[in-house]
C-alpha cells in the first residue's frame, strides 16, 4: 500500500485547522471545523483503501486478480452520513441561537462562573464523620441478651465460669486424652 504524500499533508492541514476552529467561540467557525475534520477523516479512509483495483466480485472464476478492499468504502460512506447528520444538527443549533439571541458566539454562563469560583468540596474528605461508625457499639454488647431457642425468651449473657474445658475437676490439666 502506497500513500500519497500530498494527500497526507492535506489531511494534516485539515485536521490542524479544524481543531483550531473547534476551539473558537463562534458556532459558525465550530461548524467549519467539524466539516474540515470530517473531510480529513474521509481522505484518511480513502487512502487506507489503497490503489484502485477490480471490484471484489468474482467473475469467471478469476480469484487471483487484485481486488479493491470494499471495507474502506463502506466506512467512508458511513463517515459521510455521520458528518452530514452532525452538520445538520449544528446548523439547527446555529439557527436557533441566531433566532433567540441574535448572535453567533457563545457567551459565558453566569452559573458556570459562580460554580467555578466556589472552593472545591469533596464529600468523602470534607464531610464530618461521626466518631463511632460501627453498628456494634461496646455498650450494646454489655447489655445484650441472648434469645433462648427452647423458651423463645431473652436470657442474660452467660457469666464466664472458672471451669475450663481442659479442667475436668480432678485438678490435673487434660492433655487431649479425652477423659
Describe the 3D structure.
By secondary structure, this protein is mainly alpha-helical. It has a domain at 3-51 and 67-104: Orthogonal Bundle (Helix Hairpins), CATH 1.10.287. The chain has helices spanning 5-22, 27-48, 70-101, 110-117, 123-126, 138-143, and strands at residues 145-147, 154-156. Strands 1-2 form a two-stranded antiparallel ribbon. Strand 1 and strand 2 (154-156) form a beta hairpin. Helix 1 (5-22) runs antiparallel to helix 2 (27-48) and helix 2 packs antiparallel against helix 3 (70-101). It is flat. The model has no long low-confidence stretch (mean pLDDT 78).
* Weakly predicted, low-confidence segments: none
Ends: how far apart? 89 Å
Alpha-beta content class? mainly alpha
**N-to-C series of helices and strands:** HHHHHHEE
Q: Using only CA atoms, what is the Rg?
A: 39 Å
Most strands sheet:
2 strands, antiparallel
Neighbour order of strands in the largest sheet: 1-2
Report helical residue fraction: 40-55%
Using the alpha-carbon principal axes, give the shape. flat
- Portion in strands: under 5%
CATH class of one domain: Mainly Alpha
Could you tell me the CATH topology label of one domain: Helix Hairpins
CATH architecture of one domain: Orthogonal Bundle
Number of helices: 6
Report the count of strand segments.
2
Mean pLDDT: 78
Please give a handful of descriptors for the protein shown.
flat; about 5% strand; 6 helices; about 50% helix; mainly alpha
List the helices and strands and how they pair.
Layout: H1 5-22, H2 27-48, H3 70-101, H4 110-117, H5 123-126, H6 138-143, E1 145-147, E2 154-156
Antiparallel strand pairs: 1-2
Helix pairs in contact: 1-2, 2-3
Amino acid at each position: 500500500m502506497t500513500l500519497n504524500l500530498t494527500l497526507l499533508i492535506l489531511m494534516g492541514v485539515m485536521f490542524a485547522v479544524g481543531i483550531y476552529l473547534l476551539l473558537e467561540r463562534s458556532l459558525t467557525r465550530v461548524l467549519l471545523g467539524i466539516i474540515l475534520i470530517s473531510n480529513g477523516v474521509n481522505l484518511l479512509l480513502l487512502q487506507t483503501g489503497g490503489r484502485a483495483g477490480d471490484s471484489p466480485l468474482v467473475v469467471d472464476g478469476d480469484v487471483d486478480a487484485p481486488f479493491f478492499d470494499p471495507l474502506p468504502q463502506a466506512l467512508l460512506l458511513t463517515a459521510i452520513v455521520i458528518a452530514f447528520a452532525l452538520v445538520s444538527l449544528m446548523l439547527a443549533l446555529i439557527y436557533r441561537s441566531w433566532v433567540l439571541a441574535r448572535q453567533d458566539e457563545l457567551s459565558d454562563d453566569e452559573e458556570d462562573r459562580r460554580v467555578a469560583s466556589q472552593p472545591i468540596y469533596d464529600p468523602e474528605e470534607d464531610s464530618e464523620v461521626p466518631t463511632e461508625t460501627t453498628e456494634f457499639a461496646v455498650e450494646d454488647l454489655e447489655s445484650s441478651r441472648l434469645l433462648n431457642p427452647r423458651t423463645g425468651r431473652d436470657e442474660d449473657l452467660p457469666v464466664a465460669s472458672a471451669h475450663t474445658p481442659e479442667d475436668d475437676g480432678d485438678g490435673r490439666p487434660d492433655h487431649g486424652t479425652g477423659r
